[in-house]
């Protein structure tokens, strides 16, 4: 597929395409909700936030509207694991 696109000089995507559809990447979503990328990925995997991947290894696509109303405090209120012994550390 890539060879066909390259031969016919077809771009794989337009820069503004995601914005037009109201979509953002995992990195951008992490910034919006105020967490690191790995925490955002864990939230995707446990269903706290929703996103899609076209295939394994492809970038995560998240609807920006789905993040509306989410706050870091609300998202981190529950531990990331179901272990009741997990503690929250306050780093200075």
Structure description:
With 92 residues, this protein is mainly α. Helix content is 36%, strand content 4%. A two-stranded antiparallel ribbon has the order 1-2. It is elongated, with a radius of gyration of 17 Å. The mean pLDDT is 79.
Summed up, what is this model?
This protein is mainly alpha-helical and about 90 residues long.
Using brief descriptors, characterize the structure shown.
single chain; 92 residues; mainly alpha; two-stranded antiparallel sheet; 5 helices; 36% helix; 4% strand; elongated
User: Helical element count?
Assistant: 5
Spatial arrangement of strands, main beta sheet: 1-2
**Helicity level, as a percent range?**
25-40%
How would you characterize the largest beta sheet? Answer: 2 strands, antiparallel
Tell the overall outline: elongated
Structural Rg: 17 Å
Spans of 5+ residues with little confidence (pLDDT < 50)?
none
Which percent band covers the strand fraction? under 5%
Mean pLDDT across residues: 79
Give the distance, in angstroms, between the N- and C-terminal Cα atoms.
50 Å
Q: What structural category characterises the helix and strand content? A: mainly alpha
Total DSSP E strands = 2
Order of helices and strands: HHEHHEH
């Amino acid at each position: 597929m890539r060879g066909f696109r390259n031969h016919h000089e077809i771009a794989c995507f337009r820069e503004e395409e995601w914005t037009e559809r109201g979509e953002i990447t995992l990195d951008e979503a992490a910034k919006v909700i105020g967490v690191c990328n790995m925490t955002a990925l864990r939230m995707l995997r446990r269903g706290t936030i929703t996103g899609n991947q076209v295939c394994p290894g492809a970038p995560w696509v998240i609807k920006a509207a789905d993040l509306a109303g989410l706050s870091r405090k609300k998202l981190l209120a529950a531990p990331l694991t179901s272990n009741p012994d997990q503690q929250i550390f306050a780093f200075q």
